[in-house]
Design a protein that fits this description.
By secondary structure, this protein is an alpha+beta fold. Helix content is 36%, strand content 13%. The chain has a 5-stranded antiparallel beta sheet with strand order 1-2-3-4-5, covered by helices on one side. Helix 2 packs antiparallel against helix 3 (141-159), helix 3 (141-159) packs across helix 4 and helix 3 (141-159) crosses helix 5. The protein is elongated and about 65 Å long. The N and C termini lie close together (6 Å).
């Protein structure tokens, strides 16, 4: 989640538009290394010779990401890493382009949360799934219906198509703001709080 902390706020007296206080992400991991390659200000890490030799230099970035800098003008920068048991890669026309793509990748790897790439619709489905709950503590029929209604009416229109990693406190605030009454706003806020907790546990949010 781009803004990870959604704190509780005071109950409204006249407006359903409750305030969700935004928090910050931890900064990118510290680069470590015997020496650091800085072809520019954005990609840095341990430098080693590529496995194929021929003078190819690669950079081991935090999180197990291997970066292959462009060797000549016109070539692309490339990064390779393993995530959720699969080999992944991405490219950029420049160091800056690649570094921008690595920000979210490093966040997912640091959090060990591959679900961050999943759409918000899957987060909502996970939250509403009865299989997520302990067998001895299921939701009542009334509570399950209420949570499904709140998600369908207020959350899905805002976050269903977003990657979980791109959901911010601002998006959640928009869902709360759409509530027509203070009481409904309180219910939406509580739903969001429970969804965020479930999302963190399930690896969809950080």
């Amino acid at each position: 989640m781009a803004q990870t902390a959604l704190s509780r706020s005071k109950k409204p007296t006249k407006s359903p538009q409750l305030t969700l206080v935004e928090g910050g992400n931890a900064g990118p991991g510290r680069s470590r290394g015997r020496r650091a390659l800085r072809a520019g200000p954005l990609v840095a890490g341990d430098v080693r010779e590529g496995t194929r030799g021929q003078g190819r230099v690669v950079v081991e970035v935090d999180g197990g990401i291997t970066v292959y800098p462009a060797r000549r003008a016109g070539e692309r920068w490339r990064a390779v890493w393993y995530e959720d048991g699969q080999r992944r890669q991405c490219q950029g026309a420049s160091e800056e382009r690649l570094a921008g793509r690595l920000v979210k990748i490093r966040e997912r790897l640091a959090a060990d949360a591959p679900g961050l790439e999943r759409p918000g619709a899957e987060l909502i489905a996970f939250y509403l799934s009865p299989d997520r709950l302990p067998a001895d503590r299921p939701w009542s029929r009334k509570h399950a219906d209420t949570q499904a209604r709140l998600c369908r009416r207020f959350l899905a229109p805002v976050i269903a198509r977003l990657a979980c990693q791109d959901i911010t406190a601002g998006h959640m605030q928009a869902a709360v703001n759409a509530a027509p009454t203070p009481g409904e706003g309180t219910r939406v806020r509580r739903c969001i709080s429970a969804l965020v907790t479930a999302g963190i546990t399930g690896g969809y949010l950080t």
